[in-house]
Design goal:
The complex is a heterodimer of chains A (304) and B (315). Helices cover 68% and strands 0% of the residues of chain A. By secondary structure, chain A is an all-alpha fold. Chain A has a single domain, classed as MetI-like (MetI-like fold, Orthogonal Bundle). The longest helix of chain A has 37 residues. Chain B is globular, with a radius of gyration of 24 Å. The interface between A and B is large, with 52 and 61 residues.
């Protein structure tokens, strides 16, 4: 479980210099974006294509398969992959594995995106406040978040999810708690950096209010490094969620979810190892694709 | 230097208090009355009161926290609901096994990752670099518990080469043979991350002026690399510490796959039985250890890096 990527949070020294005068930002960004498209390399595009395929199969799962993802045929249990009618075989309850993987992609993709997105919003709020108000409020806010750094991510997630009780919402909540502190640190460092810029002083001199400066000047310049880091956390989020479901703290049966599928077939490893291992391939490939895409986007952003 | 370490230790206090507070609050974020989920529904009111008192669930919240904190400071972390024995000894025993696994994986991952990262940095931009970078990406993306399952299937079931469950007799070669597969599974992300970071650091150092100078002076490749490695050592040590800390939790899922009797396995059992005192104590002790390891890393890095050392001494 690569929770260690959390330790890779970019510090303030790694922040790119924010683009020039604020009035230009939308135009500069638009231009950079059009130029950036051609800078994205082949692996990134392939990985992105794979993610789109997974997404499409998740959305159109009911049209793509004749089987029910929840109810199986016990007489057909643990058919090996390649059996007629069951391309990837069946699981311990006789359900079609390919079908469950497609339906499971819905929750697993959501698990990659949603906790990171929610944590990013919370982190922006905390980090912007703490970074622009270095006084007591900012210090207290960041020290409180620091406490959550004192736990290995998966331990914290398991502990919180276990106390809240098994269930999807609680697992998502636990992941939000894990991701908010490192994201907030990045936001805070970026905010401090931007707050010292000349264009912010210029805005102050024109009499702009603090809130206006935060939204119009600071936020657009803080977003790029934060989004880059958030993108790199999506793979981690997918893996953590799979881990929580694997130990039974995520979805409740019989809902299909990749980590849960791995967990429920764990004991089949001795009898039908290929079936038991299959759901992991989906997790692995999607995590690779997410990481390739986030790396590619970061490199492209570095180049432009 | 003593003053520096002292100030770092002082700065640790609020964090430790925070760790305690988070662990303490686990019982209180449980939905509903904690007693309902912790106790037999048929228990009498007297039993409930006694249990509440034993768990420290009487009085106001701050009152409860400080009572609990006082007991924890005295070494009493409560009793397991499922096993009916003191939690402390259970968690400490499990923590030793986890440290063994995490330590083995951190050392192995660091060695492999350092070699791969250095190779990639020296051959930067070439096919070898791309291959190694791809490999590190795989290491970072593979779910370690899944890798564990694959290892069980291959080594345990198909080839029957190595034991895949438990810790054996707990000593000697038996322990080592039980340690091999879990270590491989746990170290995959460590290899991935270490490779990446070593590659970045070594590439940076290789571009430095002092390396240029040594090269111009005719220093051989092997000695040059040794020199580069000495420069990279503080950073590598930092990576090691970070990884060791992360693995205290990161090995949890692999422990479950291999029935390794560590904290992860213990917490897993506790989760299925809703044995909150065990989860609470595990989180607390792992948090404490994690904080201490991080401090040791920081201090160690300062000691190793002359630039940082002089900064500390002069202030």
């Amino acid at each position: 479980m690569s929770t260690s990527a959390l330790a890779e949070a970019p510090g303030s020294e790694a922040l790119p210099t924010p683009p020039g005068p604020p009035g230009l930002v939308p135009r500069v960004l638009a231009r950079a974006r059009s130029r950036r498209r051609s800078r994205v390399d082949l692996p990134t595009r392939l990985a992105f294509g794979f993610l789109v395929l997974v997404l499409l199969s998740a959305v159109f799962a009911p049209l793509l398969t004749p089987y029910d993802p929840l109810v199986g045929d016990i007489s057909q249990r643990l058919l090996s992959p390649g059996s007629p009618g069951h391309l990837l075989g069946t699981d311990e309850q006789g359900r079609d594995i390919a079908t469950r993987l497609m339906f499971g992609a819905r929750l697993s993709l959501l698990a990659a995106v949603l906790p990171v997105a929610v944590a990013s919003v919370l982190a922006l709020a905390c980090g912007l406040i703490a970074g622009s108000r270095p006084g007591l409020l900012g210090t207290v806010l960041m020290r409180v978040l620091d406490v959550f750094f004192a736990f290995p991510a998966i331990m914290l997630a398991i502990g919180v999810a276990a106390a809240l009780g098994p269930g999807l919402h609680n697992a998502f909540g636990a992941l939000v708690l894990v991701f908010t502190p490192p994201l907030a640190r990045v936001v805070e460092a970026a905010t401090r950096h931007v707050a010292g810029m000349e264009y912010v002083q210029a805005a102050q001199l024109t009499g702009a209010t603090r809130a206006r400066i935060l939204v119009r000047q600071v936020l657009p310049n803080v977003l790029p490094p934060v989004l880059t880091y958030a993108a790199s956390l999506m793979g981690v989020s997918l893996l953590l969620m799979a881990g929580l479901s694997f130990v039974g703290l995520g979805v409740r049966p019989p809902t299909p979810e990749w980590g849960f599928m791995l967990g429920s077939m764990r004991d089949m490893i001795y009898t039908s190892p290929v079936n038991a291992i299959l759901p992991g391939i989906a997790i692995f490939l999607t995590a690779v694709a997410l990481n390739v895409v986030s790396d590619g986007l970061r490199d492209a952003a570095d180049r432009s | 230097m003593t003053r520096y370490v002292g100030s770092r230790l002082l700065a640790l206090l609020p964090i430790l208090l925070g760790v305690a507070a988070v662990s303490f609050s686990l019982v209180h974020i449980m939905p509903g009355d904690p007693l309902d989920s912790l106790m037999d529904p048929q228990s009498t009111q007297a039993e409930r009161d006694a249990f509440a008192a034993a768990l420290g669930l009487t009085g106001s919240l701050p009152e409860q926290f400080f009572t609990w904190l006082g007991r924890v400071a005295g070494g009493d972390l409560g009793r397991s609901i499922a096993f009916r024995q003191p939690v402390l000894s259970m968690v400490v025993g499990a923590l030793q096994n986890t440290l063994l696994l995490a330590g083995a994986a951190a050392v192995f991952g660091l060695l492999v990752g350092s070699v791969l990262g250095t190779l990639a940095a020296v051959h930067r931009g070439r096919a070898l670099d791309r291959g190694v970078t791809g490999l590190s990406l795989i290491g970072l993306s593979i779910p370690s518990f899944w890798l564990g399952m694959i290892l069980v299937a291959l080594f345990g079931v198909t080839w029957q080469l190595l034991p895949v469950s438990g810790i054996g007799s707990g000593s000697g070669t038996d322990l080592l043979s039980h340690l091999v597969l879990p270590t491989l599974a746990v170290s995959a992300p460590v290899i991935g991350l270490t490779t990446r970071m070593v590659r970045t650091h070594v590439a940076e150092i290789l571009e430095g002026q002092h390396v240029e100078f040594l090269r111009a002076n005719g220093m051989g490749r092997a000695r040059l690399l040794l020199q580069v490695w000495r420069n990279a050592l503080p950073n590598v040590l930092t990576i090691f510490g970070l990884e060791l800390g992360n693995l205290l939790g990161g090995s949890a899922l692999v422990e479950i796959v291999f029935s390794w009797p560590g904290v992860g396995q213990l917490v897993y059992q506790a989760v299925t039985q809703r044995d909150i005192p065990v989860i609470q104590a595990s989180l607390l002790l792992v948090g404490l250890l994690y904080v201490v390891i991080n401090l040791a890393v920081d201090v160690g890095q300062t000691l190793l890096d002359p630039r940082r050392r002089s900064q500390v001494v002069s202030t």
